[in-house]
Amino acid sequence: MSSSVVGSDPTTNPARGSTPVTSPVGSPTGPGTYPHSETLTARFEWIESAGLYGFTDHDVNGYHSAAPYFLHLYTRLLQLIPETALAMQKPDGHNERALLSREVKFLEICHEFVRDNAEELFKTKDFHYKLWARVEEFSRQGITSFDNRMSRHITRMSFVLGDHAPPPSESWEGDTLPSHGRFVRAYNEFLELDDRPLRNDVDRRFLMFLSQEVLGQALLGLRMPMVSLSVQENLFLEGARPTYVDFPYGSDEWLYGLGERPGVLELRRKIGGPITPEQEERIKKAKAIKNTEEPKQPNNPKQPTDPKQPEDSTRPKESRKRPATYVPIQRDPKRPRAIDNYTITNDNIDADIQDIYSTAKFLDISNKPDIARLLNPTAENREDTLNAYESELHKVLRQCRLNIYKPETPPQTQAERDRLMRQIENQIPRLRDEIHKKSDMITSASKLKEARVAAFTLKFIRTLHMKLLLASDPPPSVSQMRHALRDRLDDWILHEQAWNAADEKAIKHIRPGFAGKKNWLMKFVDARNQNIQSWWTLRDQLDEAIREEALSGVGAGGNDGGNGGGGGGGGGEAREQAKTGEAQPADNQPVEGQPAKGQPVDSPPADNQPADNPPAPAEETKQAEGPKEPKEPKRAPLYWLEPRKAPTTVYFDEREEARREERARARAMERLLGPPSPGESYLDEERYRLEDEFSAKLAAAFPAHGGPPAHETIPRETVYDKIIYMFVMTHWRYFAGIAII
Fold first, then answer.
1. pLDDT by residue (tens digit) across 288-304?
2. Which residue ranges have biased composition labelled Gly residues (predicted)?
3. Which one of 191, 278, 481, 551 is CB 3.0 to 4.6 Å from 593, fit for a cystine?
């Protein structure tokens, strides 16, 4: 494909109406280009500094909102990554390799920003289109295969863009489609495709692939990128072959359809175009006509089926017996569990915030809260360490208060609380992973310091999350509170472990004769270890109570369908529950009574039977097999052309290349073994004959410059006419060459 469409520059004028000013780090931040004198590191740190502030400094940098500011910086980042990768190939490219890793890691910050602020960002005109264009352009670069984090970023951004794609009707202005530069370039390239030579099956399939790709670019230019997939979804439904690939332009069948076969007006509906009442009436009449004479279609390739395999007598048959009912451990009623009265209040949360502020001496707060107000207080840390970390801890608190919220002025609406809780829950797993990597796997002093700062950050944002959860309306249920308290204990344990890692390393490196310092450090380590041990016991009790609730259906009520239960990835269970909507069974525990998919954990079982009342034997088989769903009609195959080997001089035609190899082997066998016996051959000539006959029939049905009847008369005046022409020609090529897709 020529670069006029695929390689079109989506970065032109990323934001208009902006005045270049000076950023806090002294770099020009307008939509102009970088001075060549700036280093790669300086250019990235300029972008990174804006991301650390959540792209909220757009006003001081000459942008009216965060959307164009983010687009500008995101574009610069995507330009910077291949430049850094190129510089990394130099002999002295060690610094560039580390810089590339930072740039790729920053992509996740960009994804989280778009995901968490999608509702506001996508209100900006053309933000969805511009972001889609940048992500698509980035996905076509070879550097994305260097680090799987880049591919993961593209996938995640694609999901966000797909979830927030505007309806195609928004692209219309009344009953007309406005033109855009990307669409014009795509249309011109589509017309050039008709001049491509069709010498063999490879050329025909490649023409089909290019038609699909250019049509997708045209739809992207019209700000309706999801239409290409929605139109393709039922295109090959049995008995629903479009009429516009068989009937001439101007006929009623071409426009309104015939029976179950859609016409051009169905295409107009799918791209968001208005349909008049008269047209709707004609479509209904056309659907009522029984299609008795359907044009002959090429033989479709048989879809792969899954034939029933004979039962293997050597395989053990799966037991259809219901697993044993889970019986929780019975405790002595005289010794209640520690979690029976374990809860948290707003006063505990306020005390945690005061404790965090006083630890960092933030906002001139140095007084510790009363120890009785703290729930699971963490151990004291060394004063000299806190003094050395003060600037980093202040920076963390400022960023969290700026990017999340200030605990002194919490959000007042439940929608805002839910959004912030989701944002925090997405940030917690990343912090946990960072702590594990820097405190467990890497033991350098700088990495241990970063792990401690990350643990401090984790403790603060978990406290912010708990404050939001307690303020929820309706209040959180017992099950949600237990999930949240368990996750809080996970983070508190990780906090103590991260701070212990550096002290334990310092103890190992104390020189002989400094026993006093070693004993002094051991006091801090022992205090944290004592916390960890007691918290693990408490955490296990909470985890067991959560499993019992999931199996028995106890604890329902409250805000069960709201904010996801304060998960944040605690222990892996709540995080999986938030993703899949179903309870995860505990290790080595039967799954009897587990809620069905999409059912809250603390909801009763789907069969509404008590746990101690097992179903009848006849129902066991039904439960094992699952509920029977109504039989769905046969789904249409979704043909989507993917690129194969590039048509180079070596692999111009894979089939022809295979024949060349077979003939060469046949000649070698004839030299070594002599000529074949009469009536035999070293070559499969019959297969060659059948393949050639098939290609000849395909060439007759799919000629060069071919198309549906009277396709030359299809109007191409307006934008709507042009996109319909592209649809008709692309779909005709699909059906003409469907046997080689």
1. 887 554 444 444 433 33
2. 554-572
3. 551
Chain-centroid distance, C-alpha 716: 38
Residue with tokens 């490649």: 206
Task: Tell me how far apart the alpha carbons of residues 503 and 521 are, in angstroms, rounded to a whole number.
Answer: 7
Distance, CA of 530 to CA of 283 (rounded, Å): 76
Number of H helices, E strands in the chain: 23, 0
The length of the chain, given as a count of residues: 741
How many Cα atoms within 13 Å fall on the side-chain side of residue 76? 25
* Long-range CB contact pairs, 656-660, < 8 A, 24+: 656/200, 659/688
Q: What is the pTM of this model?
A: 0.51
CA torsion sign for 309, 310, 316, 319 is positive
Burial class (CB in 10 A: 0-12, 13-18, 19+), 533: exposed
CA distance 268 to 254: 13
d(CA 378, CA 531): 7
The residue among 399, 393, 427 whose CA lies nearest residue 50 is 399
The neighbour count for residue 313, using CB atoms within 10 Å, is: 7
Residue 321 has pLDDT above 80, yes or no: no
**3-state SS assignment for residue 694:** helix
The alpha carbon dihedral of 261, 267, 270, 272 has a sign of negative
In single-letter form, the type of residue at position 264 comes to: V
Closest CA to 414 of 482, 468, 477: 468
Q: Are 566 and 463 in contact (CB under 8 A)?
A: no
Output DSSP code: residue 61: G
Tokens representing 285 are 């009449």
Long-range pairs for 635-638: beta carbons < 8 A, 24 or more residues apart = 636/233, 636/234, 636/235, 636/236, 636/237, 636/238, 636/240, 637/236, 637/303, 638/232, 638/233, 638/236
Please tell me what DSSP assigns to residue 331.
-
User: How far apart are alpha carbons 112 and 93 in whole angstroms?
Assistant: 30
* Burial of 3 per CB tally in 10 Å (0-12, 13-18, 19+): exposed
Nearest to 546 by CA among 489, 597, 506: 489
Percent of the chain past pLDDT 90, that is, above it, reads 33
**DSSP state, residue 708:** S
Neighbour tally for 171: CB within 10 Å: 21
Closest CA to 492 of 348, 634, 676: 348
The Cα–Cα gap between 499 and 450 comes to 10
> Angle 201-221/127-139 helices, nearest 10 degrees?
150
Report whether 202 contacts 708 (CB < 8 A).
no
Amino acid 285: pLDDT: 93
What amino acid occupies position 380?
A: E
Looking at residue 291, its pLDDT comes to 59
Cα separation of 417 and 476, whole Å? 13
Round to whole Å and give the CA distance between 693 and 636: 29
**Alpha helix (H) ranges present in 89-200?**
94-116, 118-121, 127-139, 148-163, 181-193
Domain coordinates of the chain in residue numbers?
A: 40-166, 188-238+634-741, 346-574
